[in-house]
Amino acid sequence: MIKNPVPWPNGARCAVAITLDMDADSILHLEHPDDSLSRVAALSMLRYGPEVAVPRILETYRRYGLKQTFFIPAWCIEQYPAAVEAILKDGHELGHHGYIHENPNEAGREDQEYWIQRSIAVIERASGRRPRGYRAPLYNFSDHTADLLVQEGIVYDASLMGDDIPYILRTKDGDLVELPGHWGVDDWPPYVHAPDLNFSMPIMAPPRAMEIFRAEFDAQWEHGGFWVGIWHPFVSGRLARWCEVDRLIQYMLDKGGVWFATMEEIADHVLACAKDGSYSPRVDAWPYYAEPVRVTMDPKLRAVR
């Protein structure tokens, strides 16, 4: 099924990363800049992430001895320093996730460069090091994003959905390791009902949602792949849902042959294998298209009646 599986460390069958995007209330202020302050129920729901869910998540990770990756908008790093300090104290990776969850596809190259650089500065101040990974807010990876990330020395991206396993985005100035996910491992479709965010889905019972995530994991484990959870503290960190996450982690450990790692560790492993010749990742040349695709009518091809 996977024709070119990555040789994972110590003969592991599957690499696993449970990534948490701690967006907090950045998304509400971006969606409703004029009256976000009056949407108090939505604010409380989103603030639940850093204030209640993150401590719960960190306790679970400590219990299992896991180090994982948190993608956090830089505004949230500034707004919720206690949560970020706790994440860093436990040795987790801090990844780039925009400044205030802004949409890269709505910004020109210069504006996007500004927000990327401003966010890097915030991450450096908080963690003492530049981020090595990036996830575009809402997967909105623009036609400038890859070039700008390479320019800033970012090693990997986690925004795209082009494979089941890591691959390479090759730009004219350098490469990015792509650590792909997809909507099937994202917690918004099964859980999020938030009219203030213009996203209203019928909420699944946690065991039903976990069936989907577990099926994705089982397939990756069977075929030597890479499983990434793209989750949010205010969503999956809710009590009943996180209890199911706890059970999923135990299920993965009991199954065996699983390498839990940060996204940074996975990217570094892929690069090391490519360097020593034990793995040849698939390469996507960037950009996919040099100009917009336009289709026009050709009168010569009009059907003759």
If you had to describe this structure to a student in words, what would you say it looks like?
By secondary structure, the protein is α/β, with parallel strands linked by helices. It has a single domain, classed as Glycoside hydrolase/deacetylase (TIM Barrel). The protein is 42% helix and 15% strand. The chain has 11 helices and 12 strands. The strands form 3 sheets. Strands 1, 2, 3, 10 and 11 form a 5-stranded parallel β-sheet that branches. Strands 4-5-7-6-12 form a 5-stranded mixed β-sheet, sandwiched between helices. β6 and β7 form a beta hairpin. α2 packs parallel to α10 and α8 packs parallel to α10.
Task: Chart the SSEs and their pairings.
Layout: E1 14-21, H1 26-31, H2 40-64, E2 69-72, H3 74-79, H4 81-89, E3 93-96, H5 109-127, E4 133-134, H6 145-151, E5 156-157, E6 167-171, E7 174-178, H7 188-191, E8 193-194, E9 199-200, H8 206-223, E10 226-231, H9 233-236, H10 239-255, E11 258-260, H11 263-276, E12 283-285
Helix pairs in contact: 2-4, 2-10, 8-10
Question: Which short descriptors sum up this protein?
Answer:
305 residues, 42% helix, five-stranded mixed sheet, 11 helices, alpha/beta, TIM Barrel, single chain, five-stranded parallel sheet
